[in-house]
């Protein structure tokens, strides 16, 4: 019962993060499941089965709000599904000993990306432009789907920045299209895991706990994100993912360090994490002060123009 409660909290937190940042549900959930001792393939399979429900709910919500570009979804979903199925079957064939460090490396890389991206530049943003072409979306979908399955998450961290960086689709439709297509990607990954693993290592209760708490968190995240700055949240979550997967790697056969160097690595990660969080807080406060000055200046100019017009 205690494990189910912890998983429900983990699922709620992961969906809260994903709803705030447009990414990181799978990365966060899989990282927490690995901390519970679940093997990498079973952890990724559990998360993807739960995501069938959470991505469906998220996709429907975005569709009803007009945040989905269906041309993008049609072009990226199928390659993403192919990549996810391939990644799921690949991970299922690996032994637990071999899969654990590989998964941890992928999660560590995604965590470093989230930490650096949100600390240095804040939430992703983009500009409107020409339609996205298939020759761009197909490789992004294949790679994003493969990483999503092998790392337990990665569709958002790969797809969202790529679409935003193209400058050809507005941010709200980037998030909505990635979320809507993720349902197809998640479904393909789940089928791949069931083919490769069967039901071995998959706890139905864990899936339900993650699913229910994630669905509950989805609408709440949209409300809470107005009060929790995404830049700060991204730095905090990215640092958590880096720390936990650094710990996983240091406890594998790939890396054998004496206790003293291990402590030094942990201290370095903690310093990096706290420094990034502090930087994000400082940058957010500076941006807010600048915004207040700009708004105040605009209001003063408007008042002056009004007085001049009446004189």
Automatic annotation (TrEMBL):
Transmembrane segments: 76-95, 102-120, 140-165, 177-198, 204-225, 232-250, 265-285
Membrane topology: Multi-pass membrane protein
Domain of life: Bacteria
Keyword Coiled coil: no
Coiled coil: none
Alphabetically ordered keywords of this record: Cell membrane, Membrane, Transmembrane, Transmembrane helix
Localization: Cell membrane; Membrane
Pfam families found in the cross-reference section: TauE
Family assignment from sequence similarity: Belongs to the 4-toluene sulfonate uptake permease (TSUP) (TC 2.A.102) family.
Designated name of the protein: Probable membrane transporter protein
């Amino acid at each position: 019962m205690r494990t189910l409660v912890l998983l429900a909290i983990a699922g709620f937190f992961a969906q809260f993060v994903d709803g705030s940042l447009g990414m990181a549900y799978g990365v966060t959930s899989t990282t927490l499941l690995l901390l519970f001792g679940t093997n990498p393939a079973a952890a990724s399979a559990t998360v993807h089965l739960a995501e069938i429900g959470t991505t469906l709910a998220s996709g429907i919500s975005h569709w009803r709000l007009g945040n989905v570009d269906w041309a993008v979804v049609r072009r990226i979903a199928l390659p993403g599904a192919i990549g996810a199925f391939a990644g799921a079957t690949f991970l299922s064939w690996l032994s637990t000993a071999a899969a654990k460090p590989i998964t941890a490396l992928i999660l560590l890389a995604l965590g470093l990306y989230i930490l650096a991206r949100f600390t240095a530049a804040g939430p992703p943003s983009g500009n409107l432009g020409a339609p996205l072409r298939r020759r761009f979306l197909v490789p992004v979908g294949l790679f994003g789907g493969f990483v999503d399955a092998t790392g337990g998450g990665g569709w958002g961290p790969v797809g969202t920045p790529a679409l935003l960086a193209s400058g050809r689709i507005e941010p709200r439709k980037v998030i909505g299209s990635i979320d809507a297509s993720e349902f197809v990607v998640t479904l393909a990954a789940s089928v791949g895991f069931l083919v490769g693993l069967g039901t071995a290592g998959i706890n139905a209760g864990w899936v339900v706990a993650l699913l229910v708490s994630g669905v509950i968190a989805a609408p709440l995240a949209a409300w809470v994100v107005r009060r929790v700055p995404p830049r700060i949240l991204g730095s905090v979550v990215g640092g958590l993912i880096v720390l936990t997967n650094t710990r996983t790697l240091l406890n594998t056969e790939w890396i054998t360090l004496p206790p003293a160097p291990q402590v030094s690595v942990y201290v370095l990660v903690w310093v990096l994490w706290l420094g990034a969080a502090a930087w994000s807080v400082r940058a957010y406060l500076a941006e807010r002060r600048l915004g207040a000055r700009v708004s105040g200046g605009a209001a003063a100019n408007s008042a002056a123009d009004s007085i001049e017009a009446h004189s």
